[in-house]
Amino acid sequence: MPLVLAATTPGEPEIFASIQGEGASAGRPCTFVRLSRCNLACVWCDTAYTWRFTGDNRPHRDDAPYDRAANQMTLGEEETAARIAALGGSRLVVTGGEPLLQAPALARMIAALPGMRIEIETNGTVAPPPALDALVQQYNVSPKLAHSGNAAALALPPERLAHWATEPRAWFKFVIAEPGDVDEVLAIARAHAIAPERIFLMPEGRDSDTVRAGARWLAETCSEHGFNLSDRLHIHLFGDTRGT
Questions:
Q1: Which end of the chain is less packed: N or C, by CB atoms within 10 Å?
Q2: Which CATH number fits domain 3-172: 1.10.1040, 3.20.20, 2.60.40, 1.10.287?
């Protein structure tokens, strides 16, 4: 079964080399592949072109539907792996959308890339099956808080949070828009005994000014609670653009 990928332009899959902009691997050179489809719908999502296709009326602040044919494409697992390998990197970040929705095909694609360090970015709601889990070195788990617009029953299933809390390969990254969001993070960390050094707080924003403004007050919060502060380096370097 082929993978369903996001497209940078019609017919061109979003596979690219860049610098990781967020979380535990920020600043590292990486190869990225962006898969399409998501089981959640964040109102501030900066990759809504991976899920909010014409006819999907789930709320989003831009209120812009995307043409599926222009923004989504399928590509065989071996061809996807070959395009990734051609970029020559040693660290692959699989992002989305929600990559774990395509776990079987994703596992077969990764198996064709021996020697690469694999990071999967996930919203934390989907369990990775054993065949895929055995191939992954790092999970970047980004649970979605109330301000995302998703119901907690969908976005924060306790059994999945409990799993990730005991997974030593998992780092947690929370998108923060206002101080009340930090209270949610603290409650999650307490409920699941997540050590603060495994948690990154990242300001919500799609332009440098907004990200910097959020980072200024979040820096004090991170210092107070022992959390890590995540920037969004790709926004400062390239803006809110695809393939970066």
A1: N
A2: 3.20.20
